[in-house]
Amino acid sequence: MKSVPSIEINLESVQEGLRLWIDARRSDSLFDADDDAEDNNEARFQLVEGCLYDYQISDPHFVLGDIGENIIQQHKRTTNLGTISPNIFVGTLSVPLLNKGTSEELFKVQLEVQSIKSEYRDDYRDMLELITEKCTDLLLRANSPVSQHFEIDYSRDSQTLYQKFAFIKSVIGSDDFTEAIHRIVTSPVTRWKETTEEKDIRNARRFSNANIKEILKRGNRTKIPEGHFLTGFGMDTLPERINTIRKTDSVDTPENRFVKHALETFLRFCADIHSKAKDFGHGRMENESQLLIRSLESRLHHTLFKDISRPSTLKLNSPVLQRKEGYRDVLRVWLMFDLAAKLIWKGGEDVYSGGKKDIATLYEYWLFFKLLDLLQSIFKIEPKDISELIKETPDGLSLQIKQGKSTALRGVYNSGSRKLNIRFNYNRSFSGKNPYPQSGSWTTTLRPDYTLSLWPYGISEAEAENQELIVHIHFDAKYKIANLTDFLEQKVDNDLDREKSENRKGIYKKGDLLKMHAYKDAIRRTGGAYVLYPGDKSINQKGFHEIIPGLGAFPVRPSKTDSGIGELKAFVLEITEHLINRASQREKIAFRTFDIFKDPPESDSVVKEPLPENYNANRDLIPDDTFVLVGYYNSKNQYNWIRRHGLYNFRMGSGTGSLILDKETVSSKYLLLHTLGDTDSGDLWKIASKGPRVYSKEDMERKEYPKPKKEMQDNYLVIQIEPVTDSEFENVRWNFKNLRNYSTGRASAFPFTTNLTELMKNKIS
Question: How many separate domains does the chain show?
Fold first, then answer.
């Protein structure tokens, strides 16, 4: 394949001298693949996705027809000129050449669009092979409908047939299958074969029981010479010839017969597909089946198979077929072939219909099975959910995986100390604009590629959503990202300015990252959102101190030996271990969120009065959660004692007027004092102690508490107080009698609590 600045396509078959010229706007984006195009079943002239090309037809009476997706863009005035914009299309473009006057199609111009990823051909083959293998594994499950018999219907539409053929090709066209056949023909299984033949008795070496009988009874005998040692046994004659058995090493074994039968079956299938491809006019299927036919025929022409007869039975339980290298691989392919030929996958239309090779969509499907394997290795997935991925339909066995169609797998993870419900979704839609606390997105509807949801065992998913107990982890497949780290590196001002300029032109380099932010910020109870891409660098950005909330990317490559899935597995295990920790900061945030938002705010829950700003020492000054003790003093002497010692005392015990040590009381930050006859008070103090302390009667006496000893209790609860210095509380008075916990009469002297919100609503000056 060589890079060229422009190509000229000969259209002499339509009209003498007719030419189509295509010029590349970017260097190294136009290729002449004359050398290897046929081997890869691709068109000779090749473009690159995402690039632009100018074309011109030599005669203005001809135009290129529309093929959808705005790929062919004719010039508005000169219609034989235009632009070819493949966008994200990958595969073969069949562009119709039309007569401008009659719109009659005269010719199909074949152009191949390469992926920007150089290894996409191998990736495409390997991913399709894995999907076929996983589908076969599903079909082989005992509770799958494999007992039903489905014949291949060659009269189906071409796209359905091509879908079947693509599955089959991924099995018998793989490198593993080629290697298996090579192992067999270079080191075949053999057995000793016995051949009976007549032989001169003088050349016989070993005699069997049958030979002894022949010596005694067989005809055509010769007289034994006198003096021969056999005359002593009473024998006068011997037969001239006897039958002998010769053992030879033969390759005509049941196992080799099976291999030959399998290759012949594959060949017949490909020949049938090739014939139907001609009938349908499906050029790609015709070419690909022809290449596979040649490959299978070359294998069957090996000298090994010339000496192998047809099998009478297939001994699939043979130890050689099940264990020996090469043979066991052919047996596996045989089982996969039989099932894959009957499988219908509507999602395949997204991958290879219309001559395209949608490698990005195939990567998304491939990742589904990789993630399924990963989660099955960690969690207990219910078999029913997995078996339902394959369902019997009127057309055959249908794989229930398609973009836009949610597929849920459920299970339970038991860590020993805590059980978690697991739900794995493909293409789950999170409905938009659902009111809190319902699940979904609070803005527009969003649909991540994959979502892993975890919540405590014992409650439903809906209840877990309502109580902020569920965590969603989202993953998106991005095959075409080359280096995601560029998106997460800190930008300088010039880079951001250039990025804004590019955004105005429709170029969004950070779109994938922004989408992860959208999932994280819009879908309720999302713990993290991550890109999965076939690269080599992982990124895990933590929102705070713990593993979630977070954003990032993990490399998962279409490789049989080094897919990188292990790093993603370690991440999922780390998240699982994090969710088992009941003392995590995430658990605290979840509870605070639930506690704050479980009820709508009260209509009068508004504080606009001046308050100290909630920073530094006052960082926790939230009016609803800042509590105020309202206390009573009964004399001026007691008030002077309070001011002098910076102490305030409460009664202890179960008697009337004793202080109740509830959460509000213990965590109170302020003390508002009042006395007999007060209707309002501005005597606000700050509580300096972390909680009340117990003082004995003797302690109070030493502090010169102004009360006769005989009237004193044995113990008191005492808090330490200090004057309030915040300017916002200077010269402010509050009507404490309007507070909801205030009691009238003798109970007006009993202490009670309120919060700063209610107190400020009753501010009178």
Answer: 4
Domain boundary among 57, 86, 114: 114
Ranges 447-456, 484-493, 717-726: which has the least confidence: 484-493
- 524 and 449 in one domain? yes
Does 603 reside within a domain? no
Gap between the Cα atoms of 35 and 32, Å rounded:
8
Q: Is the pTM of this model over 0.85?
A: no
Count of C-beta atoms within a 10 Å radius of residue 157 = 10
**Cβ within 8 Å of residue 43, ≥6 positions away:** 33, 37, 92, 93, 110, 111, 112
Judgement on whether residues 630 and 535 belong to the same structural domain of the protein: no
Percent of the chain with pLDDT over 90: 43
Q: Structure tokens of 94?
A: 């069949």
Same domain membership, residue 588 and residue 622: no
**DSSP secondary structure of 232-288:** GGT--EEESEEEEEEEEEE---HHHHHHHHHHHHHHHHHHHHHHHHHHHT-HHHHHH
| Local confidence band at 198 (pLDDT 50, 70, 90 cut-offs) | confident
In this prediction, residue 527 carries a pLDDT of 95
The verdict on residue 281 lying in a domain is: no
pLDDT of 401 > 80? The answer is no
In the chain, how many H helices and how many E strands?
Answer: 22, 33
In a domain, 295, yes or no: no
Q: Which of 303, 203, 325 is nearest to 255 (CA)?
A: 325
Strand order in the sheet with 396-399: 343-344, 396-399, 390-393
CATH code, 655: 3.10.590
Give the whole-angstrom CA distance, residue 617 versus residue 625.
15
Q: In which band, very low, low, confident or very high, does the pLDDT at 145 lie, cut at 50, 70 and 90? A: very low
Is residue 183 in a domain?
A: no
pLDDT at residue number 554: 93
User: What residue type is assigned to position 672 of the chain?
Assistant: L
pLDDT of amino acid 219: 81
pLDDT tens, residue by residue, 543-591: 999 999 999 999 999 887 888 899 999 999 999 999 999 999 999 999 9
Per-residue pLDDT at 501: 45
Angle between helix 359-378 and helix 120-139 axes, rounded to 10 deg: 50
Cα angle 35, 36, 38 (rounded to 5 degrees) comes to 110
Looking up tokens 């139907």 gives 276
* Domain residue limits at 747: 616-761
84 and 211 housed in the same domain: no
- Residue 430 is given by DSSP the state B
pLDDT at residue 750, rounded to an integer: 92
CA distance to 40, 299, 327, 401, 734, per residue, from 179 (Å): 19, 12, 11, 31, 90
Nearest Cα residue to 674 out of 754, 734, 757, 731: 734
Cα-only R_g, the chain: 43
Residues 6+ apart with CB under 8 A from 221: 237, 238, 239, 240
d(CA 683, CA 701): 26
Picking from 638, 651, 623, the residue whose alpha carbon sits closest to that of residue 759 is 623
Q: Which of 676, 689, 679, 677 is closest to 629 using CA atoms? A: 689
| β-pair partners for 533 | 555
The pLDDT mean for the chain works out to: 83
Q: Are residues 634 and 672 in the same domain?
A: yes
Q: At what angle do helices 327-340 and 175-186 cross, to 10 degrees?
A: 140
581 and 620 within one domain: no
